[in-house]
Design a protein that fits this description.
single chain, alpha/beta, Rossmann fold, 2 domains, seven-stranded mixed beta sheet, two-stranded antiparallel ribbon, 7 helices, rod-shaped
Length: about 375
């Protein structure tokens, strides 16, 4: 059984004392001579030194072993920590990749749904009678009609040299790289696309927009591609009217798009000289005094919080200025305020018909009954 390490120095000391005592005793008894006694003492000293060195070496070896075990333990801990974090990082990366893939799939599904919603228009009942529907509505792959097409939007088998070509040899519209940022009450992208496609189909000579901004740029670009028509946008906010004009200029649409500053003013129905009807805030009538023969009307303003049924005055003020074949689009039509405006327009204008739309797009579309204007 090995002695505890703490007792080894004491054992060496006892051996040394006993050895010295034996040498002194033997010399006192004349058992050994001085020479032998000194030799024994020297031998004992050497042995003691060797024992001390052995003890020191043992301690060094023990410390080295202890240090080795500590290093092994720390190394294993570090390896485990690195492995654990590596797993966490891998899980985070895989989770992010999965989320991105899901987001891309959702965006693609939304685009497919929008495309499907706008591919055709089906009839639905409106105002107690059967609503009309477009005989043909443009698809996203349709070639943009040019002036020489005589209004026929069907794609041709042999495109003109230099035309931009899409799938199946169809010409497509390419908007300039810079695109404006919509403000808080801007028309949604699916509504803007709907109106742009309607412009491509009908090629209006005069398009009037209540409101301005992103839609003004897209509609202006669409009119430029059709090669005919102009857009008049009414804007009640002077600062935003200036910003929209700057964007129009940046796109080179000055000759096509006119942004008019039309501050809101109290509006009352025609003939209400006594002021019995509640006043609404609508564009100052001076801004529309020169408009006539409107082929397409896009009502996206004023903001719905300007007053109750804020967009109703567009009916009495602008519908009489429309051409017999005009198309009227009312944005934000699914809300209670928008539905109320629709019903009042239909009551005020018996010849006005609301078109049925497929899909869940937040607009109402109106046309005039043939032969009534």
């Amino acid at each position: 059984m090995p002695l505890p390490r703490s007792r080894l120095p004491l054992l060496l000391l006892v051996i040394a004392v006993v050895g010295v005592g034996l040498i002194i005793t033997a010399r006192t008894a004349d058992a050994v001579g001085w020479t032998a006694a000194l030799g024994l003492a020297a031998t004992g000293a050497v042995g003691l030194a060797i024992g001390v060195l052995a003890l020191l070496m043992r301690r060094v070896i023990v410390q080295i072993r202890r240090l080795g075990r500590t290093l092994d333990t720390n190394t294993r801990s570090m390896s485990e920590a690195i492995g654990e974090h590596r797993v966490e990082f891998t899980e985070i990366i895989e989770g992010t990749r999965t989320e991105l893939a899901g987001s891309v799939d959702r965006v693609r599904a939304a685009v497919r749904e929008i495309n499907g919603n706008l591919d055709h228009i089906r009839p639905t009942p409106a105002n107690g009678s059967e609503a009309h529907h477009f005989e043909r509505f443009p698809r996203i792959t349709d070639r943009i009609p040019l002036p020489q097409d005589n209004g026929d939007p069907r794609p041709t088998d042999e495109p003109e040299p230099g035309d931009d070509q899409g799938p199946g040899g169809c010409e497509i519209m390419q908007v300039r790289p810079f695109a404006p940022t919509p403000r808080g009450w801007a028309a949604s992208p699916d509504v803007q696309r709907f109106v742009a496609l309607a412009v491509l189909e009908r090629q209006p000579a005069l398009l009037v927009e209540c409101g301005s901004g992103t839609s003004s740029i897209w509609l202006g670009e669409t009119l430029r591609r059709t090669g005919t028509g102009r857009l008049v946008a009414l804007e009640h906010d002077e600062r935003y009217a200036r910003l929209t004009r700057d964007m129009v200029a940046a796109h080179g649409l000055d000759g096509i798009v006119e942004v008019r500053f039309a501050p809101l003013a109290d509006w009352r129905p025609p003939g209400d000289d006594a002021g019995t009807a509640a006043a609404r805030r609508w564009y100052h009538l001076d801004s529309i005094h020169d408009l006539a023969g409107i082929d397409m009307l896009f009502v996206d303003g004023p903001p719905t919080d300007a007053s109750a049924e804020a967009r109703y005055p567009a009916g009495p003020a602008l519908l009489p200025l429309c051409s017999p074949s005009a198309l009227v689009v009312l944005d934000d039509a699914q809300a209670a305020d928008g539905r109320a405006v629709t019903e009042r327009w239909l009551d005020d204008h018996p010849a006005l018909r609301r078109e049925g739309l497929s899909g869940d797009i937040d607009v109402h579309v109106f046309t005039w009954e043939r032969g009534t204007r």
